[in-house]
Write a structure and sequence with these properties.
By secondary structure, this protein is α+β, with helices and mostly antiparallel strands. Helices cover about 50% and strands about 10% of the residues. It contains eleven helices and four strands. Strands 1, 2, 3 and 4 form a four-stranded antiparallel sheet that branches. A hairpin with a 5-residue loop joins strand 3 (about 140-145) and strand 4 (about 150-155). Helix 4 packs across helix 5 and helix 4 runs parallel beside helix 6.
């Protein structure tokens, strides 16, 4: 792929998933404008299905949902930025809900025990396996501490940190390509905006910061 020069080998699979999703929902022409060569095998997968007759804003929401946590969170943040997004798109992005499909409890259990360095039963008297809420980056479970106090335990989705950093690196690379090859985009400063959004998203991965803010 001509336009994929600069994407590390470790990012190639994810980059392929992103461009396949753009093609699937009818945005392959953007890749053409960026001069990203797409093999016929990938371009031939452009099956839009139920979204075929949807307006662009709705198709973008479909893309964000299918690409997972990073892109859902990006859409949620953008839905609060009328300074960056046209109203038609803003209204659709607002439909991205915080409640999403939750991670299987077996994965959450491993995450908790690895983080705490203890077995779950050594820390909690009771722990509800069904989450109270499930968001793009984490989910919350009700639990009972040894001194009989009920608490809410917020658990980060497994590997979400690595996935998000990979996605943001790919998006930053694409942003630079957009500025280089689509001159009219420069007025909107896509690279600077992506940097701002990426920093905001990464800060949400730091639960210790959130904990300090709660204590304050």
């Amino acid at each position: 792929m001509r336009g994929s020069v600069g994407i590390g080998l470790s990012h190639t699979k994810r980059f392929k998933e992103i461009i396949e999703m753009l093609i699937k929902y009818g945005f392959g022409y953007l890749l053409d404008r960026l001069d990203i060569y797409i093999p016929s095998g990938i371009r031939g997968k452009g099956i839009i299905g139920d979204c075929h007759d949807l307006p662009p804003a709705k198709r973008i929401v479909c893309i964000l949902q299918e690409l997972g946590p990073t892109f859902i969170k990006l859409g949620q943040i953008l839905s609060t930025r009328p300074d960056m997004i046209p109203k038609t798109y803003l209204d659709e992005l607002k439909k991205l809900q915080d409640d999403v499909i939750h991670t299987d409890f077996k994965e959450i259990l491993c995450q908790i025990e690895e983080e705490l360095g203890k077995k779950l039963e050594d820390v909690f008297l009771d722990f509800d396996q069904e989450p109270l809420a499930s968001a793009s980056l984490s989910q919350v479970h009700k639990a009972l501490l040894p001194h009989k106090q009920w608490v809410a335990v917020k658990v980060q989705r497994p590997d979400v940190d690595e996935v998000m950093r990979t996605d943001l690196e790919i998006l930053m690379w694409l942003g630079k390509l957009v500025e280089k090859r689509i001159p009219e985009s420069r007025a909107y400063e896509p690279v600077a905006k992506l940097k701002e959004l990426g920093d905001a998203m990464l800060s949400e991965l730091d639960f210790s910061m959130e904990g300090r803010n709660i204590e304050k």
